[in-house]
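Quick one:
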Amino acid sequence: MSRSGDNLIQNNAQIFRVYERRLSNPADVDIFTGAASKLTKFLSNKRAYYAEAQPHIIELLEVAHNSLKSVAPDVFRTPGTMNRASLPQNKLSLFDGFEGLAKSVLPYVHMFTAGDMRN
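Output:
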């Protein structure tokens, strides 16, 4: 890989760590939703799914999922579905942020090399 490619990977790894911190705190709805919105935009581009980024993307989805679940444990009660109605009114934007992330990744699931993402 070229030097600029290596730099890009390193810079993105640092940015992923920032997103992880922001998505891990559902108490601050604005920070969570801002990070989710920016990450959703990034993940809407197929170039985001290079091999080195894939583990980070999976981790970020898991962090966002766990944050949402910590606020409303019933939101994922039924496997394969999300129950928006189980969230308090002031936390609905957390749901919307997570849903945006999930929807942005779906068209690119086939690009993942990690078997656990395809399941």
